[in-house]
Design a protein that fits this description.
six-stranded parallel beta sheet; globular; about 15% strand
């Protein structure tokens, strides 16, 4: 039986949700072979989430904003280094170029039907064709390709011991249990109208005795959404917009409930096993929705009533906006009955 790889390089650059889905692969490898060294190539944003993870030995940052100089800088970091295996987990051309730069005799990538931008040409071993599946299941196939059982799934996302003061400081600000709301995403098509979030904030406060907490970044759309919410709500939401990702882990972990459209913090909350109401419409929830947990709290506007649909990459614009405030409030009632 061949020796298990002693060094593995993971090529998965973006995004936060994908980084969360890769973590069970990392923890499974370390559980199987604690001595294997894992290097992970990431862009700066998700790198801040992963850096410090006890099962990730090294993070190399690909600074995309530098353009072609980013490749030169990363090539210099990889110069003279050899890995036993490279896992090409992102089927996009820019990631394929990086896979080509990694010196490894084995480069495992997706099968041709699931690869994009000709990225299948950068791998010399490919996963078995299995059709479209949930992203989490697709990434777990890489562990299986190494002969590693990914079960039980473990994310170990945190908060880690050194981060407990962050969590305690957040909880100290609260007079009531927190309900964190992810107010916007990277794509407007996935966002829910901010004025409806304002109504939900009032319901969380008045009907359920929860403290609305606004989470997310500081992009113009997120700031505009926050402005609309604060102008229209009669409650007093706590804003944490702009909190670094590691701090966001503590905020989500300390929340009694999380409400989110399809975006990275949704998957962070699910990995932390926090009850999560997912507002799905633009993207297929069977492919990118909450993985296995809290399916009873998913609001599925992607499919039409009674429609049976398969896992698909097809997006459906305009569907998230069909979700009503009452549908969200009803899911909060279900949360109170089953999880509170």
């Amino acid at each position: 039986m061949p020796e298990f790889p002693r060094s593995i390089c993971i090529v998965m650059l973006t995004a936060v949700g994908d980084a969360v889905h890769v973590l069970p692969v990392v923890t499974a490898i370390k559980r199987h072979s604690p001595g294997t060294r894992i290097t992970w190539i990431l862009q700066p944003g998700p790198a801040t989430l992963v850096r410090g993870h006890p099962d990730v030995d090294e993070v190399l940052v690909f600074e995309r904003k530098l353009g072609w100089r980013a490749y030169a800088k990363l090539r210099e970091q990889l110069r003279g280094r050899r890995f036993d295996v490279a896992l090409a987990m992102q089927p996009y051309f820019k990631a394929g170029l990086i896979t080509a730069m990694v010196d490894a005799p084995r480069k495992i990538g997706f099968d041709r039907p699931r690869s994009r931008d000709l990225t299948w040409i950068f791998a010399n071993e490919r996963l078995e064709p299995r059709g479209e599946r949930h992203f989490q299941d697709q990434y777990l196939e890489f562990a299986e390709a190494l002969g590693v059982d990914p079960q039980p799934l473990t994310w170990n996302l945190g908060p880690w011991p050194a981060e407990q003061p962050l969590r305690e400081a957040f909880v100290a600000k609260l007079a009531k249990p927190a309900a964190s709301i992810v107010i916007a995403t990277s794509k407007p098509e996935k966002d829910w109208p901010a004025e409806r979030w304002a109504e939900v904030c009032d319901a969380l406060d008045a009907e359920f005795g929860l403290q609305p907490v606004l989470v997310g970044g500081t992009s113009p759309r997120e700031l505009a959404a926050q402005e609309t919410i604060l102008a229209r709500t009669t409650s007093t939401p706590l804003s944490t917009l702009g909190a670094p990702l590691r701090e966001l882990v503590s905020i989500l972990d300390a929340s009694a409930l999380v409400l989110s459209p399809d975006t990275g913090p949704l998957h962070m909350a699910v990995a932390l096993n926090r009850p999560t109401i997912a507002l799905m419409g633009y993207t297929n929830p069977k492919r990118v929705g909450p993985y296995r947990r809290f399916q009873d709290l998913v609001i599925d506007a992607y499919g039409d009533p009674g429609e049976t649909y398969e896992v698909s990459r097809v997006n459906r614009p305009g569907r998230v906006q069909r979700i009503t405030v009452e549908q969200v409030v009803e899911k909060i009632r279900e949360w109170k009955t089953r999880y509170a």
